[in-house]
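Give me structure tokens for this 255-residue protein.
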Amino acid sequence: MTNGRHHDETALVTGANKGIGREIARRLAAEGMTVYLGARDEHRGREAERSLVEEGLDVRFVRLDVTVQEQVDAAVRRIEETSGRLDVLVNNAGVVVEWGVEVPDVTAAQMRSAFDVNVFGTVAVTQACLPLLRRSPAGRVVNISSPLGSLTYLGDPDHPISTRGLLPYSSSKAALNAITLVYANALREAGVRVNAANPGLVATDLNDRSPFDRGTRGPEEGAEVPVRLALMGPDGPTGTFRGSMDGSVEETVPW
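Here you go.
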């Protein structure tokens, strides 16, 4: 059951039918929020909704492919009609398209596929949600990023991140980091805080085919930093990149 701390607040989590996104939705609902669980697949989305509702949580499935503007608009209309405002947006939906592909073999089509979800989808959802976020007394946006998008790490030939060679994913997350900062600067006076979160190396479907370490962290651990950013008070930070490389200590991730 919920603890009621945020009983009057509403959240939207994209890509939330499984993994880190589902756990973020569960944790926010456990804090008392009404949580809209966005998912492309209706069957999986409704299954996730059913499971979380059975836990006594106020979770509501919305069909949401972030690359389809009509679905984005429909999801936002539903939130407006039923809740009137949005307090938290977690842009969790993301893809990796290049496992097993060497950098010289990456195609423009693969780049477009990654950017369509990781960058353009994030902008589409954020832009559509902004009127509702502005109605909140303390709107928060959390973008799920990765140290694979850190230019500091990518520019260090001795850092393991620089050897991963994930061109579409790294470049799209670097773009997401820039988007986070630009939104944070533009929305600061409106009281809407925008931050990026590194969930750490979590073993999820996203990196199921990774030739690297898939990670030993579970979704529960991966949700820690995003949830803390989503629950922060009105005096919380904006324009930061928080997370942990090994899951032991939360730290500022370099841009």
